[in-house]
Amino acid sequence: MSVLLEVAGLTKNYDHFTAVDHVSFSVAAGETVGLLGQNGAGKTTTLHMILDILEPTGGTIRVFGKSFARNREEILKKMNFAASYVSLPGNLTVFEDLLFFSLLYGEANGKEKIEELIALFGLPEFRNRKAGRLSSGEQTRLNLAKAFLNDPLLLLLDEPTASLDPVIARQVRGIIQERQRALGTAILWTSHNMREMETMCDRILFLHHGRIVAEGPPEELKTLKEKPDLEEVFISLASEPWE
Protein backbone atom coordinates (compact mmCIF):
# COMPACT_ATOMS: atom_id res chain seq x y z
CA MET A 1 0.00 0.00 0.00
CA SER A 2 1.30 3.44 -0.88
CA VAL A 3 1.80 5.94 1.93
CA LEU A 4 -0.58 8.91 1.48
CA LEU A 5 0.26 10.84 4.67
CA GLU A 6 3.71 11.01 6.20
CA VAL A 7 4.43 13.11 9.28
CA ALA A 8 7.99 13.43 10.60
CA GLY A 9 9.13 15.19 13.76
CA LEU A 10 5.96 17.28 13.93
CA THR A 11 6.19 19.77 16.79
CA LYS A 12 4.05 22.62 18.10
CA ASN A 13 5.43 24.84 20.84
CA TYR A 14 3.61 27.60 22.69
CA ASP A 15 5.16 30.07 25.11
CA HIS A 16 5.01 27.86 28.17
CA PHE A 17 4.42 24.33 26.89
CA THR A 18 4.81 21.91 24.00
CA ALA A 19 1.46 20.73 22.62
CA VAL A 20 2.92 18.26 20.10
CA ASP A 21 6.42 16.89 20.62
CA HIS A 22 8.29 15.40 17.63
CA VAL A 23 5.44 13.19 16.43
CA SER A 24 6.12 10.88 13.48
CA PHE A 25 3.74 8.46 11.75
CA SER A 26 2.30 7.51 8.37
CA VAL A 27 -1.08 6.46 6.97
CA ALA A 28 -1.31 4.25 3.87
CA ALA A 29 -3.99 4.07 1.20
CA GLY A 30 -7.04 2.17 2.50
CA GLU A 31 -5.76 2.27 6.09
CA THR A 32 -7.50 3.77 9.13
CA VAL A 33 -5.22 5.00 11.89
CA GLY A 34 -6.69 6.06 15.21
CA LEU A 35 -5.17 8.93 17.16
CA LEU A 36 -6.04 8.47 20.85
CA GLY A 37 -5.20 10.32 24.01
CA GLN A 38 -6.66 12.23 26.91
CA ASN A 39 -8.06 15.73 26.50
CA GLY A 40 -5.15 18.07 25.80
CA ALA A 41 -2.88 15.28 24.56
CA GLY A 42 -2.34 17.02 21.20
CA LYS A 43 -4.74 15.13 18.91
CA THR A 44 -6.68 18.08 17.49
CA THR A 45 -3.51 20.20 17.34
CA THR A 46 -1.90 17.48 15.21
CA LEU A 47 -4.89 17.39 12.85
CA HIS A 48 -4.94 21.17 12.59
CA MET A 49 -1.27 21.26 11.64
CA ILE A 50 -1.86 18.64 8.94
CA LEU A 51 -4.76 20.78 7.67
CA ASP A 52 -2.54 23.90 7.71
CA ILE A 53 -4.87 25.60 10.21
CA LEU A 54 -1.94 25.81 12.64
CA GLU A 55 1.68 26.38 11.63
CA PRO A 56 4.07 23.76 13.04
CA THR A 57 7.08 24.85 15.05
CA GLY A 58 9.05 22.05 13.44
CA GLY A 59 8.80 18.86 11.41
CA THR A 60 7.52 17.98 7.97
CA ILE A 61 4.18 16.90 6.49
CA ARG A 62 4.02 15.08 3.18
CA VAL A 63 0.71 14.24 1.53
CA PHE A 64 0.54 12.05 -1.59
CA GLY A 65 4.34 12.08 -1.56
CA LYS A 66 4.54 15.87 -1.82
CA SER A 67 5.38 18.66 0.59
CA PHE A 68 2.12 20.09 1.90
CA ALA A 69 3.66 23.54 2.29
CA ARG A 70 4.69 23.67 -1.39
CA ASN A 71 1.66 21.94 -2.94
CA ARG A 72 -1.18 23.07 -0.67
CA GLU A 73 -3.81 23.87 -3.33
CA GLU A 74 -3.23 20.68 -5.30
CA ILE A 75 -3.30 18.48 -2.19
CA LEU A 76 -6.48 20.02 -0.74
CA LYS A 77 -8.40 19.01 -3.87
CA LYS A 78 -8.14 15.37 -2.77
CA MET A 79 -8.18 15.79 1.00
CA ASN A 80 -11.01 16.53 3.43
CA PHE A 81 -11.94 16.92 7.06
CA ALA A 82 -14.99 16.45 9.28
CA ALA A 83 -15.56 17.09 12.97
CA SER A 84 -18.57 17.15 15.26
CA TYR A 85 -17.64 20.67 16.42
CA VAL A 86 -17.54 22.20 12.92
CA SER A 87 -20.69 23.82 11.50
CA LEU A 88 -21.20 24.79 7.87
CA PRO A 89 -22.63 28.25 7.04
CA GLY A 90 -25.95 28.39 8.91
CA ASN A 91 -27.62 30.91 6.58
CA LEU A 92 -27.45 28.46 3.65
CA THR A 93 -29.67 25.43 3.13
CA VAL A 94 -28.26 21.91 3.22
CA PHE A 95 -28.24 21.81 -0.58
CA GLU A 96 -26.70 25.29 -0.88
CA ASP A 97 -23.93 24.46 1.60
CA LEU A 98 -23.00 21.34 -0.32
CA LEU A 99 -23.20 23.21 -3.64
CA PHE A 100 -20.89 25.92 -2.29
CA PHE A 101 -18.24 23.39 -1.28
CA SER A 102 -18.71 21.40 -4.47
CA LEU A 103 -17.91 24.53 -6.49
CA LEU A 104 -14.98 25.25 -4.19
CA TYR A 105 -13.59 21.77 -4.89
CA GLY A 106 -14.18 22.18 -8.64
CA GLU A 107 -16.37 19.08 -8.90
CA ALA A 108 -17.65 18.54 -12.45
CA ASN A 109 -20.75 16.52 -11.49
CA GLY A 110 -21.44 18.49 -8.34
CA LYS A 111 -25.24 18.49 -8.27
CA GLU A 112 -25.47 14.77 -8.99
CA LYS A 113 -22.93 14.00 -6.23
CA ILE A 114 -24.80 16.29 -3.80
CA GLU A 115 -28.10 14.46 -4.29
CA GLU A 116 -26.32 11.13 -3.82
CA LEU A 117 -24.72 12.24 -0.55
CA ILE A 118 -27.90 13.85 0.77
CA ALA A 119 -29.62 10.49 0.32
CA LEU A 120 -26.67 8.50 1.67
CA PHE A 121 -26.46 10.46 4.92
CA GLY A 122 -30.23 10.53 5.49
CA LEU A 123 -30.73 14.23 4.81
CA PRO A 124 -33.49 14.38 2.10
CA GLU A 125 -36.10 15.90 4.44
CA PHE A 126 -33.60 18.66 5.36
CA ARG A 127 -32.50 19.42 1.80
CA ASN A 128 -34.05 22.90 1.78
CA ARG A 129 -33.66 23.66 5.48
CA LYS A 130 -31.14 26.24 6.68
CA ALA A 131 -28.11 24.51 8.17
CA GLY A 132 -28.36 26.75 11.23
CA ARG A 133 -31.73 25.17 12.06
CA LEU A 134 -30.40 21.62 12.07
CA SER A 135 -29.79 19.64 15.26
CA SER A 136 -26.17 18.90 16.20
CA GLY A 137 -26.51 15.35 14.86
CA GLU A 138 -27.97 16.57 11.56
CA GLN A 139 -25.17 19.12 11.23
CA THR A 140 -22.64 16.34 11.82
CA ARG A 141 -24.16 14.30 8.98
CA LEU A 142 -24.08 17.37 6.74
CA ASN A 143 -20.43 17.88 7.59
CA LEU A 144 -19.65 14.26 6.73
CA ALA A 145 -21.54 14.58 3.42
CA LYS A 146 -19.39 17.63 2.65
CA ALA A 147 -16.26 15.61 3.43
CA PHE A 148 -17.04 13.10 0.67
CA LEU A 149 -17.89 15.64 -2.05
CA ASN A 150 -14.42 15.49 -3.57
CA ASP A 151 -13.89 11.70 -3.17
CA PRO A 152 -10.97 12.30 -0.76
CA LEU A 153 -7.88 10.15 -0.87
CA LEU A 154 -7.00 11.44 2.61
CA LEU A 155 -9.70 12.05 5.22
CA LEU A 156 -9.15 13.51 8.69
CA LEU A 157 -11.93 12.82 11.19
CA ASP A 158 -12.07 14.49 14.61
CA GLU A 159 -14.73 12.90 16.84
CA PRO A 160 -16.97 12.46 13.76
CA THR A 161 -19.74 10.51 15.54
CA ALA A 162 -19.70 12.29 18.93
CA SER A 163 -23.11 13.96 18.44
CA LEU A 164 -24.83 10.97 16.81
CA ASP A 165 -27.12 8.47 18.48
CA PRO A 166 -25.89 4.83 18.44
CA VAL A 167 -28.11 3.79 15.50
CA ILE A 168 -27.04 6.69 13.26
CA ALA A 169 -23.41 6.36 14.39
CA ARG A 170 -23.35 2.72 13.28
CA GLN A 171 -24.86 3.65 9.92
CA VAL A 172 -22.30 6.44 9.45
CA ARG A 173 -19.40 4.10 10.28
CA GLY A 174 -20.72 1.71 7.64
CA ILE A 175 -20.89 4.51 5.05
CA ILE A 176 -17.33 5.60 5.84
CA GLN A 177 -16.07 2.03 5.45
CA GLU A 178 -17.91 1.56 2.14
CA ARG A 179 -16.52 4.83 0.74
CA GLN A 180 -13.04 3.98 1.97
CA ARG A 181 -13.11 0.61 0.21
CA ALA A 182 -14.33 2.21 -3.02
CA LEU A 183 -11.81 5.07 -3.02
CA GLY A 184 -8.82 3.59 -1.19
CA THR A 185 -8.98 6.50 1.26
CA ALA A 186 -6.40 6.87 4.02
CA ILE A 187 -8.15 7.93 7.25
CA LEU A 188 -6.75 9.53 10.39
CA TRP A 189 -9.46 9.31 13.05
CA THR A 190 -9.64 10.70 16.59
CA SER A 191 -12.29 9.65 19.08
CA HIS A 192 -12.94 8.96 22.74
CA ASN A 193 -15.22 6.10 21.73
CA MET A 194 -12.89 3.16 22.37
CA ARG A 195 -15.30 0.57 20.98
CA GLU A 196 -15.52 2.58 17.77
CA MET A 197 -11.74 2.80 17.52
CA GLU A 198 -11.31 -0.89 18.14
CA THR A 199 -13.78 -1.66 15.35
CA MET A 200 -12.66 0.92 12.79
CA CYS A 201 -8.89 1.23 13.12
CA ASP A 202 -6.12 -0.88 11.64
CA ARG A 203 -3.59 0.81 13.92
CA ILE A 204 -3.73 3.00 17.02
CA LEU A 205 -1.36 5.81 17.99
CA PHE A 206 -1.59 6.80 21.65
CA LEU A 207 -0.62 10.40 22.41
CA HIS A 208 0.37 11.49 25.91
CA HIS A 209 1.46 15.08 26.56
CA GLY A 210 2.10 15.54 22.85
CA ARG A 211 4.23 12.42 22.34
CA ILE A 212 3.39 9.02 20.87
CA VAL A 213 3.95 6.56 23.73
CA ALA A 214 2.38 3.44 22.19
CA GLU A 215 1.28 2.29 18.75
CA GLY A 216 0.08 -0.81 16.98
CA PRO A 217 -3.03 -2.74 15.93
CA PRO A 218 -5.75 -2.81 18.63
CA GLU A 219 -5.33 -6.55 19.22
CA GLU A 220 -1.58 -6.14 19.62
CA LEU A 221 -2.00 -3.36 22.16
CA LYS A 222 -4.52 -5.42 24.14
CA THR A 223 -2.10 -8.36 24.22
CA LEU A 224 0.86 -6.16 25.13
CA LYS A 225 -0.96 -4.54 28.05
CA GLU A 226 -2.84 -7.75 28.96
CA LYS A 227 -6.19 -5.98 28.82
CA PRO A 228 -9.58 -7.24 27.53
CA ASP A 229 -10.44 -4.15 25.47
CA LEU A 230 -9.07 -0.89 24.14
CA GLU A 231 -10.72 1.18 26.87
CA GLU A 232 -8.70 -0.67 29.51
CA VAL A 233 -5.55 -0.19 27.39
CA PHE A 234 -6.32 3.56 27.23
CA ILE A 235 -6.76 3.81 31.01
CA SER A 236 -3.57 1.82 31.62
CA LEU A 237 -1.46 3.95 29.26
CA ALA A 238 -2.92 7.22 30.57
CA SER A 239 -2.04 6.16 34.14
CA GLU A 240 1.63 5.38 33.47
CA PRO A 241 4.24 7.92 34.67
CA TRP A 242 5.69 8.77 31.25
CA GLU A 243 8.84 10.89 31.34
Describe the structure.
This protein has a domain at 1-78 and 154-160 and 186-243: P-loop containing nucleotide triphosphate hydrolases (Rossmann fold, 3-Layer(aba) Sandwich). 37% of the residues lie in helices and 26% in strands. The chain has nine helices and ten strands. It starts with a strand and ends with a helix. The mean pLDDT is 92.
What's this model, at a glance?
This protein has helices at residues 43-50, 72-76, 94-105, 110-120, 136-147, 166-183, 194-200, 218-225, 230-239; strands spanning 3-13, 18-28, 32-37, 58-63, 66-67, 79-83, 154-158, 186-190, 203-208, 211-216. It has 243 residues and is an alpha/beta fold. Helix 8 crosses helix 9 (230-239).
What is the H/E string?
Answer: EEEHEEHEHHHEHEHEEHH
Structural class: alpha/beta
The major beta sheet can be summarized as:
6 strands, mixed
| Unreliable parts | none
Topology diagram in text:
Blueprint: E1 3-13, E2 18-28, E3 32-37, H1 43-50, E4 58-63, E5 66-67, H2 72-76, E6 79-83, H3 94-105, H4 110-120, H5 136-147, E7 154-158, H6 166-183, E8 186-190, H7 194-200, E9 203-208, E10 211-216, H8 218-225, H9 230-239
Parallel strand pairs: 3-8, 3-9, 6-7, 7-8
Antiparallel strand pairs: 1-2, 1-4, 4-5, 9-10
Helix pairs in contact: 3-4, 8-9
What are its keywords?
alpha/beta, 4-stranded antiparallel sheet, 6-stranded mixed sheet, single chain, 243 residues, globular, 9 helices, Rossmann fold, 37% helix, 10 strands
